[in-house]
Design goal:
Elements (H helix, E strand, L loop, with lengths): L1 H41 L13 H15 L14 E4 L5 H10 L9 E5 L4 H6 L4 E3 L8 H18 L3
Parallel strand pairs: 1-2, 2-3
The structure holds 2-acetamido-2-deoxy-beta-D-glucopyranose.
Keywords: Glycosyltransferase, Membrane, Signal-anchor, Transferase, Transmembrane, Transmembrane helix
Family: Belongs to the glycosyltransferase 31 family.
Protein name: Fringe-like
Length: about 160
């Protein structure tokens, strides 16, 4: 009898301990995700997204989700031919960065992709089939130079009549 009582006391104590632990964990997770919960409640209709990660499938899934959430109701009606793809670059990085683009995804969108740079470059003009645009903007990385290039990019986009 004494042993059973002792045993029941122990079971009760352990349950109490576990219940307290669960309660505290719940409180903690509620607090740390409280901000997400409330913003989620305000933005009805927005899909909840996991934090951005550059590794593997996470990034791909997020990218697809971003495309879905920003797409018009019928995403299948947009094809590559409807797109205008703008790459902002600078003469200092042509050799270092353009070849890998030209060897990879540029091959799938040669007609749509334009490179906005700050110098004439006959070599890459040839390799991109004339898709290098010299913006005549400064090659520095300050706000004014970047906005200058952006304005040429936007003008080219508007002239292109692409989506
Ligand atoms: C850059 O300057 C050249 C030479 O003056 C000109 O032909 C070209 O149209 C200019 N580019 C832009 C985007 O204005």
């Amino acid at each position: 009898m004494f042993r059973v009582k002792k045993y029941l006391q122990l079971v009760l104590l352990v349950s109490l301990f576990l219940a307290t632990g669960v309660f505290l964990l719940h409180q903690k997770s509620y607090r740390s995700f409280g901000a997400v919960d409330s913003s989620h409640a305000q933005e009805v209709g927005w899909q909840e997204r996991a934090p951005r990660s550059l590794s593997g499938n996470d990034y791909e899934n997020n990218f697809v989700e971003v495309l879905r959430s920003t797409a018009t109701p019928s995403p299948s009606s947009t094809s590559v031919a409807d797109l205008f793809i703008s790459v902002k670059t600078t003469v200092h990085y042509h050799q270092a960065r353009l070849p890998v683009i030209l060897k990879t995804w540029f091959q799938l969108a040669k007609q749509q992709t334009w490179f906005f740079t700050d110098s004439d470059d006959p070599e890459f003009q040839k390799r991109t089939n004339g898709h290098m645009v010299n913006t005549n903007c400064s090659s520095t990385h300050n706000r004014k130079a970047l906005c200058c290039k952006m304005s040429v990019e936007l003008d080219a986009f508007l002239d292109s009549d692409k989506k």
